[in-house]
Amino acid sequence: MDSLMGHIVPGTFFAMFAIWWGFCVAAKHFHSRHPSKKTRKPIPYHSSTTYSCSCCSSSIGQIPLESCLKLICVSIGILGEAVTGLKHPYDDTLKRQVWIFGEVNAQHITMFFSFGFAALIEILVHAKYSLPKGIEFTANIFAFGLEGFLFHFHLHGKDDVNVHVHTLLVYNIMFCVLASIWEYNRPNQILATYCRIGATLLQGAWFYAAGFILYFPSNDPYWRWTETHGNILLITVLFIWLGLLVCIFLFLQSAFVWSVLKRRYQGFNHYSVLNEEEEEDGGGDDDDDDVLDKETGTVIKSNNHKLKLLKPKNGNAIINIDNHENDDSDSQIEFEQQQQQQQYSSKI
């Protein structure tokens, strides 16, 4: 990874999956807030480490394509590090050529393997193996934590610019770990999912930036970042601006997905607290439910109130009051109820 391409490849992997997660989470959140006409109450949002492709057929959708793609990307990364790390130089001490393997490449292979292990766990969970609940989240938290641990000890013997660039990367990875832990403990909180997506996208963008800062494809001294205090400050500002751009991108991405889905599913209802209360009251079968006009899409208030049976204190007789239609308010119903109670008591 001590090259421009060595930073672009993992940066592409992180950015690609983060952008994909952003589209899927925005669409999933839209459907959780806008149920179809057939369902009164939508399925609440629940986070996931992988998402199926809605544009694929049902048979292909049953395959964990995202996890399989992660394994392919991890295999490419491990293969690239193995090829570039294995060398056969001449040893002056032994007076012969020896096989050596780069220590940095070994670190990078370990990092790729941890994410490959997490992808394998996701495939096993998708295959309905009897594994502990939430183990796919734990595996991804472990992968991010292992990556941060490796990069923390990746800075020994480096110059100040290299150390600062990788220190900011370690901070970013720590944020990925914290966001993943938050998402694991609050699976219905979409902000936790977006924090994990934003941190992953920022990590991919920073891999690109680190590659061009440390290994710019030009020998011109103008593009070299010297070890000065001003350059350290500029690198920090660049990292912060990348984080801000990531937030803006995710906001625009979510707005774009919602606008497209609103035009595509115009027949979807907007979920509100009113729908939830109707479901809790028994699915909307009571007479005092509000009625949804399917043609206009507006909620019509119903004034049909069904009063409970009344039992007087001095007898077993029951007064049954039928539904009151077209009354002005509940106060009028209560007044009529009191009048009939008084008449009944006077007769007794």
**What is the typical, i.e. mean, pLDDT?**
79
Number of helices: 10
What percent of residues are in strands?
Answer: under 5%
Give helix % range: 55-70%
Major beta sheet, strand line-up: 1-4
Total strands: 6
Residue ranges: pLDDT <50 for 5 or more in a row? 271-294, 297-329
Q: Over all CA atoms, what is the radius of gyration?
A: 31 Å
Order of helices and strands: HHHEEEEHHHHHHEEH
Q: Note the gap between the termini.
A: 96 Å
Write a structural description.
The structure is a single chain. The chain is mainly α and 348 residues long. It is built from ten helices and six strands, in the order αααββββααααααββα. The protein has helices spanning 4-33, 58-61, 65-85, 103-126, 135-152, 160-185, 190-214, 229-264, 273-280, 330-347, and strands at 86-87, 90-91, 96-97, 100-101, 291-292, 299-300. The strands form three sheets. The chain has a two-stranded antiparallel ribbon with strand order 1-4. A two-stranded antiparallel sheet has the order 2-3. A two-stranded antiparallel sheet has the order 5-6. A hairpin with a 6-residue loop joins strand 5 and strand 6. The longest helix is centred in the last third of the chain and has 36 residues, at 229-264. It is elongated.
